[in-house]
Amino acid sequence: MRKLLRRIFRFSLLALVIITGIIVIKTISYTSRQVDFSAITPVAINQEDVAQRLGQAITFPTISWTSSVDTSAFIKLDSYLIRSFPLVDSLLEHKKINQFSKVYKWSGRNARLSPILLTGHLDVVPVETADENEWEYPPFSGKIADQYIWGRGALDDKLAIVGILEAVEQLIKDGYAPERTVYLACGHDEETGGTYGAQAIATYFAQEDIHFEYVMDEGMLIVEDAVAGLSKTVAIIGIAEKGYATLTITAQVEEAGHSSMPPETTAVGLLSESLQRLSEHPFPADIDGALADFFDYVGPEMNLPYRALFANRWLTDPLIIAQLSKGKATNASIRTTIAPTMLRAGIKDNVLPSRASAKVNFRIKPGETVESVLNYVRTVIDDERIILSVSQETDVAEPTPISATDAFGFEVIQKTIQEIFPDVVVAPGLVIGATDGKYYQGVSENVYRFLPVKVTNDDLKRIHGTDERISLEGYEQVIQFYYQLLKNSCQ
């Protein structure tokens, strides 16, 4: 017996030594994925002038509602942009799509080079009437104060459209002529799904047989304190986007009637039990695809012991997943999420309904599908009295393919980031929300989602929230980034 125990001890010790050796070797050999590009002196920008133009663009309340848009606001904004960027208007070809969206074409000198597309959206989300008084400055004032430009669209997403136009206008003034053709696309209904804006624009490109080297839309940002163990700010380039679907879950029972004599099972109770089962059985989590790429880029830049943790994911994945599951954003990056959002049942407080339904929103992780989500929910609930259907009242979108990190588009975006923001770490990532970028997958293999703005966790709350704003310096860097990106892409 003692001899057996000694052998077990020796074997365990040997295994420990081997595992420790592997951990050390993998940690030491965990090499950086950052590319050494030197910082440049960015193009000089008249900060006051560009701030005034963005501020004025914000004053047009281009709100897209589910069933309509404010046509007057969009028409006035279009006229304003024409006046503000006369060289863009006169020298670039432009085409309107569904009245309020627009495509610009800046022809390049070398027709053999595939064109690129920079895109964003002109529409903004509404401001709740009750919240207007909580704003530091009125949401559509475009106020310039305290070194910020304030208002709805300052972060999402007028600064991208106006910033791109500023960059192109300046390049034309500087006498620059691109080698490859550049397209600019301005959608008008991204906040309500993009059906009549970006989707129609992408259809137009497909009909014209226009295929892009890369597409860059809004999406991820330059985030401070993004990851524990990483002291540097991270610029995240979205290389994939989660899918989107809402299921209608309906409980139906035969017995209804007066609430004074409730049966053992009610429709409301059955629906509640079904939703509880979903809550208790979240989708499986995994670190793969775009998220795995993210950690491959940021892991080598981390401090110990985090560097060792991510260098040895073959061993530590369960620990990492357990930690990521604790945060809302990080949990959403590792699994398909389940969010009950609407409930409907009953007509009177003393009448038992025979039907009760819920709308449950799913943000679908790449690698899964709308059909696989439906099957998973059906398996978890496992009750023939529950009827499942994909809601047709809202958009349905499969997760996007993953764009390459070894392609020209990613490399040129990474280079430009490091030239304008030299102290940041660049990494690919997964977009957990929805963007217009999904529509352009049919006209380019590589669609990237990145907005060149430095933000804190406090700033993230301002997107779609109260006191949306961009700093004067931050907006200047936005324009400098687009200016340099166009030069890097088209020379």
User: Looking at CATH, which topology of the largest domain would you report?
Assistant: Aminopeptidase
Ranges with pLDDT <50 over ≥5 residues? none
Q: Which homologous superfamily in CATH is the superfamily of the largest domain?
A: Zn peptidases
> What proportion of the residues is helical, as a percent range?
25-40%
Query: What's the number of structural domains?
Result: 2
Largest sheet: 8 strands, mixed
Q: Count of helical segments?
A: 15
Structural class: alpha+beta
What is the average per-residue confidence, as pLDDT, rounded to a whole number?
Answer: 93
Distance between the termini: 76 Å
Shape, please?
Answer: globular
- The top-level CATH class of the largest domain is Alpha Beta
Query: Quick one: how many beta strands?
Result: 17
Radius of gyration: 26 Å
Proportion of residues in extended strands? 15-25%
The appropriate CATH architecture of the largest domain is: 3-Layer(aba) Sandwich
Q: Could you list some keywords that capture this structure?
A:
Alpha-Beta Plaits; single chain; 2 domains; four-stranded antiparallel beta sheet; 491 residues; eight-stranded mixed beta sheet; 21% strand; alpha+beta; Aminopeptidase
Q: Could you characterize the architecture of this molecule?
A:
This protein has 491 residues and is of the alpha+beta class. It has two domains: 47-221 and 400-419 and 427-490, 3-Layer(aba) Sandwich (Aminopeptidase), CATH 3.40.630; 244-281 and 335-398, Alpha-Beta Plaits, CATH 3.30.70.360. Helices cover 37% and strands 21% of the residues. It is built from 15 helices and 17 strands. It has helices at residues 2-28, 47-58, 71-84, 86-91, 158-173, 198-207, 267-280, 289-298, 306-311, 313-324, 328-334, 370-381, 408-420, 457-462, 472-490, and strands at residues 93-97, 101-106, 116-121, 144-145, 148-150, 182-187, 214-223, 234-241, 243-252, 257-258, 337-345, 351-352, 355-364, 386-390, 425-431, 447-455, 469-471. The strands form four sheets. Strands 1, 2, 3, 6, 7, 8, 15 and 16 form an eight-stranded mixed sheet that branches. A four-stranded antiparallel sheet has the order 11-13-9-14, covered by helices on one side. Strands 4-5-17 form a three-stranded antiparallel sheet. A hairpin with a 3-residue loop joins strand 1 (93-97) and strand 2. Helix 2 packs across helix 15 (472-490), helix 5 (158-173) crosses helix 15 and helix 13 packs across helix 15 (472-490). The longest helix has 27 residues, at 2-28. It starts with a helix and ends with a helix. The mean pLDDT is 93.
